[in-house]
Amino acid sequence: MDIERLDLNLLVTLDTLLVERNVSRAAKRLHLSQPAISTRLTRLRELLGDPLLLPAQRGMIPTQRALELQALLHAAIEGVRQVIATGSPFDPATARATVAIAASDYVQYSVLMPLALTLSREAPGLRIAWRTIDTGLLEAQMARGEVDLALTTPGTAPENLRMRTLYREEYVAIVRPDHPALSEPLDLDTFCRLEHVIVSPAGGGFHGPVDDALAAVGRSRRVALSAPGFLVVPEIVARSDMIALVPTRVAGDRVGRVRLLAPPLPVPGFDMAMVWHERTTTHPLHRWLRQRIGELVSASGKDGGEMPVPAPPGT
């Protein structure tokens, strides 16, 4: 094989095709036409002496030779990108890129929304794609470049990814302001008697950390509604006599629509972390973005938001 006939554009095209395994998606990602991608693939087949990708019912299937090349090729291209970036000062004001960030609806609201507003001023050329997080697919999505950064709990983060803890989150109880059955402080009997809204990200679950805490003291509650995300919960509570425990960052700016109460028993909170792939660790843009997210979270308060968490009864 004459390596001088292999230019970088051909290798980038092959790397993208091996990730996408679809000509139209590769063309969209590289901002090229489908015929241009097909022409490059033909040249690659001739130069490497292998079909590389074979037509299938859905997309394309890589040959064994292509699979052997994939990891080494991707690492080589990332190395070239890092060499080019080294020594070039990163300027967010002039940067042009698209970054995909995966998170739950709660994190999109509490962390990514302030980030998007900040980036619109500081880095107007950046496009941010929010994606619903799926921790089971996250490692593969990051390896393929479909997700660049994710925010999730440390316990659900894949072991092979880089991670930095951002903050500690706690729970607060919410009810509608004129709830007829409640007074402060919220006692355990009333808490157990009310109908509850619970969040089940996978859908349909009726058991959570609160139920484990109640079982530890020999109590239980009635969960009347299971929702797939946190954002709708304050609105449901505001229009009913139901009660819910939500992260403080969800409840903090809804004072007035809902009333905030300390839970009547200790309910463990959780940590939130940033997770990313090794391929973006030293990339100037991604390094700056991770730093900016950390700064924004720190500025909002270490207790999970500007709103103080009510003290439990008797403290």
From TrEMBL:
<keyword id="KW-0238">DNA-binding</keyword>
<keyword id="KW-0804">Transcription</keyword>
<dbReference type="Pfam" id="PF00126">
    <property type="entry name" value="HTH_1"/>
</dbReference>
<dbReference type="InterPro" id="IPR000847">
    <property type="entry name" value="LysR_HTH_N"/>
</dbReference>
<dbReference type="InterPro" id="IPR050389">
    <property type="entry name" value="LysR-type_TF"/>
</dbReference>
<protein>
    <submittedName>
        <fullName>LysR family transcriptional regulator</fullName>
    </submittedName>
</protein>
<comment type="similarity">
    <text>Belongs to the LysR transcriptional regulatory family.</text>
</comment>
<dbReference type="InterPro" id="IPR036388">
    <property type="entry name" value="WH-like_DNA-bd_sf"/>
</dbReference>
<dbReference type="Pfam" id="PF03466">
    <property type="entry name" value="LysR_substrate"/>
</dbReference>
<dbReference type="InterPro" id="IPR005119">
    <property type="entry name" value="LysR_subst-bd"/>
</dbReference>
<keyword id="KW-0805">Transcription regulation</keyword>
<dbReference type="InterPro" id="IPR036390">
    <property type="entry name" value="WH_DNA-bd_sf"/>
</dbReference>
<feature type="domain" description="HTH lysR-type">
    <location>
        <begin position="6"/>
        <end position="63"/>
    </location>
</feature>
